[in-house]
Amino acid sequence: MSDAPAAKPRRPWQRVLANLRERKVLAMLLLGFSSGLPIYLVGNTLGFWMRKEGIDLSTIGFLSWVGLAYTLKFLWAPVVDRTDAPGLGWLGRRRGWMLLSQIVVAAGLVGMAVVQPKGGHVLFLGIAWEHVAVFGVMAVIVAFASATQDIVIDAWRIESASNSEQLGLLTSSSALGYRTALLVTDALILLIAARVGWQVSYEIMAALMAVGVVAVITAREPARAVAAVHAQAAPLWSPRGLFDAVVGPFVAFIREHRSGAILILVAISVYRMADFIMGPMANPFYVDLGLSEDTVGAVRGSVGLVATFFGIAAAGLVSVRWGVLVTLVVGAVLGPASNLAFAWLAYVGPDATHFAAAMAIDNFASGFAGTALIAYMSSLTNIGYTATQYALLSSFYAMPGKALKGLSGWAVQSLAQGRTLLEGYALFFIGTALIGIPVVILCALLIVQQRRHLRSAG
Fold first, then answer.
1. What is the percent of the chain where pLDDT is above 70?
2. What angle, 0 to 180 degrees and rounded to 10, lies between the N-to-C axes of helices 408-415 and 273-289?
3. Residues 412-426 pLDDT 10s
4. Which of 69, 84, 228, 403 is disulfide-compatible with 147, CB 3.0–4.6 A?
C-alpha cells in the first residue's frame, strides 16, 4: 500500500484550465463568455447609461421589462430545437442558431450605440421616432437574440458531453466564461465608459461578440443533435406536443409533491423578488448619489467580486452543515435585508468607503441567496425533475419579480414626491427589504412540511 498522499481535488476553474487543449472545453469557455455578455448590457448596466443621459426613472424601470425575454425563452425553445437557422443550416442546427443569434446581438448592440438613450427624435424611413423608443426596440432585439443564444448553447453543452463527468467539466467551463463576461459588463465597462464614453463602450462590447463566433468555428456539431434531426418526426405545434412541452412538466411536478407543490412554487416565485424589483434602480441610484463610473466599476471589480465569492462559499458551508432548507431560510433573510444597506447609503451620501461597505453586504447576501435557491431547486430535481421541469421552474421563479420590476422607477418617483429624490430611493429600498418577511415565513413552512413528510414516511 502506497504512503503517498492523495492528490488534492482540483477546483472547477482549475479543471477547466487544465483541459483547455480539448476543443469542446475551449469552445464551451468561449460560448459561456458570449452567453453572459449581453445580459447586463440590456439590464442593470443599461440603467447607468440611461440615467447619465438624464432619462427619467419611470422609463428606465419600464425598459427593464426587456429582460422578460430570458424568462419566457421556453416559449420559442421548441422552434430552435426542431428547425434549422434561416440560411445557416449548413453549419448544423446548434451551430447555425448560435451564429445567427450572435450576429443579431452584435448588430443590436451597435444599433443601441448609434441611437443612444437621449431626448429628441431620430429619422427612420421618413418618420421621426423618439430616440428612447428606437433605443428600446434595439434593446428588445438584443434580449431576444441573447435568450435564443442561451437556449442553443445549453443544448450544445448537454449534447456534446459524452458522459456525466464531461458534462460537469463543460458546465464549469461555461460558468467560468459566463462569470468573466458579467465582470466585464458590470464593472469593466464602467471604467471604459469613464474614459471613452458609453457609445464607444457598447461598440466594444459588440465587437467582443466575436468571441462567440470563434467558438462556433471551433466547435463541432454534436452527434446527438445530428441524430435527433434525422429521427424527428413529430409535428412541432401538435396539441400533444404543446401539452408535453409546457403543461406536462408542471402536472408531473404537482403529482410528485401533491399538497406541498403550491407552497414550493409560491416560495420559489417570491424568493428573489426583492432583488429583481430593486435591480433596475441600483445604477440610477449611484448616478443620482453622485458616484462616478470609475468608483462604481473599481468597487464592483474588487470588493464586490470578493464578497460574492465569500457569499457563495458560505452558502455551501451552511448547506453541508445544516442542510439545504436551513440555507434557504438564511438566504431569505440576508437577500432582502441587504437592500437596507442601500437605504443607509442614501442617507450617508456618496462616500467611497460607505459605498464599498454597502456593496460588500449586498454582494455577499446575493451570492449566498442565489446559491441557496439553486441548491434547493437542484434538490428537487433529484426526486423526479426532468431538465424541462427545471428550466420551466427557473423561468417561473423569475417571472413575478421581473414582471414587477418595470414599475420600480415609477415607485421611486412616487415615493420622492414631497421629499428629496434620495429619500424616495431610501423608502423604496426599505420597502423591497420588507418583501423578505413573507419569504422567510414561506421558507419556514417548507421546513415544517419536510418534517411532516419525513414523519409520515417513517
1. 82
2. 60
3. 999 999 999 999 999
4. 69
